[in-house]
Write a structure and sequence with these properties.
Organism (chain B): Flavobacterium croceum DSM 17960
Keywords (chain B): ATP-binding, Nucleotide-binding, Transport
Radius of gyration of chain A: 21 Å
CATH class of the largest domain in chain B: Alpha Beta
Radius of gyration of chain B: 19 Å
Number of strands of chain B: 10
Distance between the termini of chain B: 39 Å
Helix content of chain B: 40-55%
Pfam family, one (chain B): ABC_tran
Number of helices of chain B: 10
Largest sheet of chain A: none
Largest interface: A-B, 18 and 26 residues
Oligomer: heterodimer
Protein name (chain B): Phospholipid/cholesterol/gamma-HCH transport system ATP-binding protein
Order of helices and strands of chain B: EEEHEEHEHHHEHEHEEHHH
Number of domains of chain A: 1
CATH architecture of the largest domain in chain B: 3-Layer(aba) Sandwich
Structural class of chain A: mainly alpha
GO molecular function, one term (chain B): ATP hydrolysis activity
CATH topology of the largest domain in chain B: Rossmann fold
Structural class of chain B: alpha/beta
Amino acid sequence: MMLVRYLSQIGKYFIMLAEIFKKPTKWSVMRGLVFKEIDDLIIDSLGIVSFISFFVGGVVSIQTALNLTNPLIPKYLIGFATRQSVVLEFAPTFISIIMAGKMGSFITSSIGTMRVTEQIDALEVMGVNSLNYLVFPKLIALLLFPFVIGIAMFLGILGGWLGGVYGGFLSSSEFIQGLQSEFVPFHIVYAFIKTVIFALILATIPSFHGYYMKGGALEVGKASTVSFVWTSVIIILANYILTQLLLAS
Amino acid sequence: MIEVKNVKKSFNGVEVLKGISTTFETGKTNLIIGQSGSGKTVLLKSLLGIHTPDSGTISFDGRIYSELTDDERRDLRTEIGMVFQGSALFDSMTVEENVAFPLKMFTNKTIAEIKERVDFVIDRVHLENAHTKKPSEISGGMQKRVAIARAIVNNPKYLFCDEPNSGLDPKTSIVIDNLIQEITEEYNITTVINTHDMNSVMEIGEKIVFLKQGVLAWEGSKREIFKTDNAAVTDFVYSSNLFKKIREAQNKEV
């Protein structure tokens, strides 16, 4: 019974994805909506992403340094480990999970409130494709999500450099040598491919939970929580599958 | 004119509308009344196309909704104005942005033309000083008037109102009722109002459709409703102590 319910929800989610692209809203209206979503979802996230990335990068560097007790292991590995951790996992995956909490709950609660207060019914009665009007601008805005992740990568490594160098664990040139050591450009491509997929998940799963919610204010809160859990689960699963496909094969 | 023919609708095996047939006339305020659970909202949502009837037809000036293509339905919806029970104004927009919304979405009017029309409609519903306010900054009665302004801004042929007086004081309710009736006559709109407010029935009930347990139990005008012998209608109308006392006083006079 539970399996049927999950399958039914998955089917509904894919039908929703198809509906997003039907009966498009006039471009003159859509343009304004896209800029608003860029402001709400991307620009408003930069502060918290920068703060977290900078300090986590610093902590990764310090932790690595504190665990490299063997004098035979070169210190530049601190820079190498920081780069690999930040670029491969921390920036694309963990920032996306943090954004599932921030952006995801914002998307679910804003669409859910529109559902509860009949604003979505009002759009439908007017002849507007409410899914296109509400979700499509979010999808377009989140195409800029890789830009956020690029900033997270840069600040994470900057934090690592400051933590490592000013913590007295290694010199600046050793850190930079580590950053350049065994650099595989495809790792950047891999990270950004993941980011684009996570952006699509971040835009659509919270929208699904907000759009199809039923009930009142309490249910909006519950839908936001459920949305966060499912967005995180799907990001983690997608991360595993993409890593297997892009790096392991 | 909206013609409803033998409309049936069930949810989870429970028949909510049991073959409703009636007409809602142009230029008149048509009221759907009945107790909670009588099927009023389901009928209104069926008229709006939010619910699809299991059987029966709904036609808008001869256009049968179930036989229209998606594009034709979309065009028809642009001819419909709706005032929701909770007003359903867009929180993120100001009053004038809310009112301008249908024009921006469905017309090719210039910004100046949109502004002119929006100003006219906002003045028409007597909201001159509320242009730049957000829905959360105005009263419930003002929100209803904004909802009416948004519903009529694109010159609809059909106006639907779901409990337009819900949550309003009696004085403001009368203002809203009269405004809807004036607009209906002025623009020759087919107006359908879902209500259980007897004051509205007395004020603007030119045609009244009474539903009981999914069946059309009675239809007539506001003058006829107080004279009918239909037990279901009298039970509903005189459930209010005020109306009971008025009736007793009238009987004594006679």
